[in-house]
Structures are given as structure tokens and as C-alpha cells.
């Protein structure tokens, strides 16, 4: 039942987008998000759409695969659309019962829905083309200048790596415990929400106990392998910027700079 | 002494810092010396103190009384602790709980990364370590998709990449299926013979002990028996007294001898028994 959880799952490949330095990709996505919030009219959306399509084309990730990422969030998009459509005041278009749809409302609704869709597809492109490990590497490197003001960059990245490492292990364990409990008559699938939640207790207790035991053993194993925090640590694959990274970041800066500036023209 | 890699001198270890009542003495006044290049097996059933002994050997635990020396360095010396752990690498029981990274080669690189080795040298060591344990083809795989024996071999590679002189394995096969066990035992033998690593192998499987240079049998925190596999397993009655088993073939030979057959008392492998019969 847990096998199909795929939050922005990495889509392996060896295209120019995949090979870009993760730091550069994170910064470009930040610019992308910022510019998205600066847009107040429809025409710049064409530029955003063009950017997304261009990246999808370069990364060779199937369009269907990208759109699949929208599926779990469709409810949020629909709710946002409806709230905006019904609750914005202005020139009346038509009304259903006590609810009125205005011209401004409809425009706002479409606008917000598009913003959400672009936001989700844009950011999912980052996780689709960047492996979790280089993503954490990128985050660690980007945060490292803030170490001086007390941001634990290395520790955060280490925690993320370990979390990613243990997600499949813990899922497998959950599955095992569930089957063991079901073999002894536990019922996880029927009853109302309250009952179902109650039935989860015998699943969660052993899961947590095991997770703590694992954490303890992992800590000892890490110590035995000379782990002593981020000081003086080297990396197997050091991040290095090359020409394509510089080119990508320069072009993106110009592109998103232009999109942001359209607001003031 | 140059040919001695680990020396344990009159070590006692107590768990629990609370009152007198909840103190458990896991190790009682033990002295051991591990020779360089030796394949030492420590046997004992649960609670005999063998895992505690392993953790004392690389400074994960510090003795309550007595001293432990690794390559002449006292484990109580805080400045030397990382050198000690680099010299005496340790592999644990559960392969899942000692793999840190999401890609095999990243995990093998974890140790050398912690030591601050330059990237190019790490790359060399990772490739070499993965070749030794025969996991090179899997270097880009995710560890959770590997079998137990493969995961444990990755864990061993992770220790090898730190270039230790001595590898301590704390029941490395306890959680594996029979195929995984054979893989690990063959890897351990290879490390000892080809890579000249000193091996301290802790186990409760008797048939894994047959190939050792020397066996120590632990019982309630003390060393109950010591000797070569032939010396140890020829004393079938004594072994059984300690709540342990002898290898199946040895047991068969022992029973046959009791029935009056003329069979020597130091049979350890099927081949030996076949020859005698």
C-alpha cells in the first residue's frame, strides 16, 4: 500500500538538465518562484510556460510524467479556483443560488489556478532531474555561508540523507509489522475513522521502538567509521561549477529578471 | 611487541552507572592479545560478553578497569580515538543499520570522507574496496534493493575503504540467510588471506569457526577455552557443558566414536571424515 508514494521521484537521465550543478538548479528554481509571485497579468505566463516546456524538452522527462505530479494536488487547485471564483467582489456574471460569480472572480480564479500549476510543475522539475543525494549536497553547499550565524548546514544535510536512506527501510518494516498484526487478527481496513486510527496504535508502537533502536545502532556504526560532524570532511564527488552552469545561471537571471520587470512596465 | 595489534590487559567492564543493584559486569578481568594477520574467532552464546568485548577493541566502550591497546595506542587516550577506529574497523550485525547513504558508492565513501581524504584518493579506495568484496557492479545501486548478504558486503567495503589493519566483525551473519552467510564467510577468508587483514570474528555459529587460526570461547564475561579449532572442538563434552554446539560433522564423529568406531577426535570437515571412513 505504501509502494506508490512518489513525491517528485527522481527520473534518472543524463541530459544537460540532469548534469547541471544542483546549486545552480536550486537558485534558478528560487528565481522561478519569485518571478511567479511578481506576475500580475496573463501575458508573462506565456514566458513561464515556455520556460517549463523548454526545460521538459531538454530533460527528456515525458510530459505525462510531469503532469502526474499534479494529480495529488488537484483538490487544492480546484478549491483555490472555487474560492477565488465565488468570493471575489465585482461585476456580476451569473449566480448559482446564494453564490455569485463575478468577472473579476473568474479572472482571479484562473490566474491563481495557473500560478499553482506552474509552481508545482516547476518545482517538481527540480526533484525529477536531481537525485536526492546531489540535492542535499546542493543545499548543504548553499547554506554553508550561513554557518557563521549558526545555521547547521552540514547537520541538516546529514539528517536529510539519513531520512532519505531510511524511508524505504521503514516502509518495508511497516508492511512487515502490518502483516504480522493482520495474521493475528488485527483489522486496519474497516470501521470508522476513529476506530481505524485506534487500530493503528499496535502498528505505530513497534515501528517507533524499532526506529529508535535503529537510530542508536546507526549512531554507533557512524562513530565506528570516524564520523565527527562536518569539520574537515571531504566528499567523494565535490561540486564544481563549469561553463554550462555559468551559462544557465546567466541566461536564467536575464529571463526571470525580464519577467519580473514586466510588472513595472 | 610489533606482531601484536590488539592487547587487552586485565579488563573489566560494567554496564549501568546507577546503584550497586543494576550493575552488570559484562567482562571480568580478561587479558587477550591479538596477533597481526591472525584470524581469531570469538565464540559464546548470548550474554557471554562477546559483543561488549568487540566494542572495547575500538574504543566505542572504555574499560571500567584495565587497559586496551590498539597498535600500541591506549583506547582511553582521547586524542588517538580516531586513529584507533581507523586501525580497527568494525562491522555490525544488522546491515540495514550501518549503511548511511542512499547509493552504494556514497556509503563506502563515508568513512574516508570523515577522515578528510582527498576526493581522488577516496574514488580509488572506494573502487578497490568494492572490487575486493565483489560488489563493484552494484556501485550505483540503492542499498535497500540489495539482498542481506550484499548489504553486509557493502558494509564491509565501507570499513575496508578506511584501510584498517584489523577488522572486527560482530556477528556479521546473524541476520542473513544461508546464501548470505556463505558470501560473508568467503569474503572474510579472502580479507584474511589475500588482503592480510587481521580478523576478529565474533559469532555463535560453530561451523564458521572451523577455519580460524585460533578460537576463544567466552562464558559469563570470562574466557572459558582457548586454542586452535582442533583443540577446541575435540573437547566435545566441555563445549556442550558451556551450552554451545560443535560443528555437525564433529558431532557425528564424536557419536560414532562413542559407539566404538576408531575415529580421531579432531574431525572438523566433511572431507576429513570421508577420508577417515
Count of spatially separate domains of chain A: 2
Tally of DSSP helical segments of chain A: 11
- The number of distinct structural domains of chain B comes to 1
Radius of gyration of chain A: 23 Å
Strand tally of chain A is 2
Described by the principal axes of the CA atoms, the overall outline of chain B is globular
Specify Rg of chain B, calculated over alpha carbons. Answer: 20 Å
The end-to-end distance of chain A, rounded to whole angstroms, is 52 Å
CATH architecture of chain B: 3-Layer(aba) Sandwich
**Beta-strand residue fraction of chain A:** under 5%
Percent helix of chain B, as a range, is: 25-40%
* Percent of residues in helices of chain A: 55-70%
CATH topology of chain B: Rossmann fold
Give the largest interface pair and sizes.
Answer: A-B, 29 and 40 residues
Poorly predicted runs of 5 or more residues of chain A: 1-7
Biggest sheet of chain B, open or closed, and with what strands and sense? 6 strands, mixed
Strand/helix succession of chain A: HHHHHEEHHHHHH
- Residue windows where pLDDT falls under 50 for at least 5 positions of chain B: none
Q: How far is the N terminus from the C terminus of chain B? A: 45 Å
Q: Indicate the mean pLDDT of chain A.
A: 87
Portion of residues in beta strands of chain B equals 15-25%
